[in-house]
């Protein structure tokens, strides 16, 4: 049986990917310090509770399980927080990944699936964005991931590391089976906040910015269902077993949804009209990010199947309603 070590395996995207790998016949080991993940989200294999910057713990995990691939999700991912406290992002995301890569090299392990982001593109000069678009991040979160991509490329050239780099657009939705979902403390992600405003009395959903250069003035994002993302990681793992080198793919749908359109989708799906207020733009927010993901379809055989905005909201709403008292 193939084995994957999933750093950040107790987090939102990492836990969904653990499930997808397990259902595809992989043995799954989660590695997470639980600072932003959840112990009860680890359901498909053992949990190693440790930090990725702990070289000894990482070396022990790699030696014990000898994974066929490492799927690397462990990262801080709040754009606003990265602007306010950039040192956290460079220490955890960039330095933590360097420790992981060094320990993989020492262990003779050469296959990495890296969770990157469309934030490395910055403000796009064309849309949709393909993988050849220049990378010019506008916030420390994006820079921390860009630095990792550079490390992966350089270590591949020097030491033979093989990697698939997956640049997500906006991960959204929840496991349709209701086993896991999207939880953050604090919650800053737009869909959980919109759903909370729909189902919790007294909540108001704040739209940050109404003067972007988009069709209705609100920010536009390419939302891709987390289950579709998870399936892409399994396909990436299979590719690493076949092919050498570094392969970069966007993961998105090619369709942008504005925040105002998202509000309409939540209202439509929940049957409740959202109370809405308007606030200023968040620091570091581009007006629009929409993927060109044809390369992932051609080379991985990946096509998003559950990423319509109504389906995304439907699965997220079901998850959040199941734990209503906590949101």
Automatic annotation (TrEMBL):
<keyword id="KW-0413">Isomerase</keyword>
<protein>
    <submittedName>
        <fullName>UDP-glucose 4-epimerase GalE</fullName>
        <ecNumber>5.1.3.2</ecNumber>
    </submittedName>
</protein>
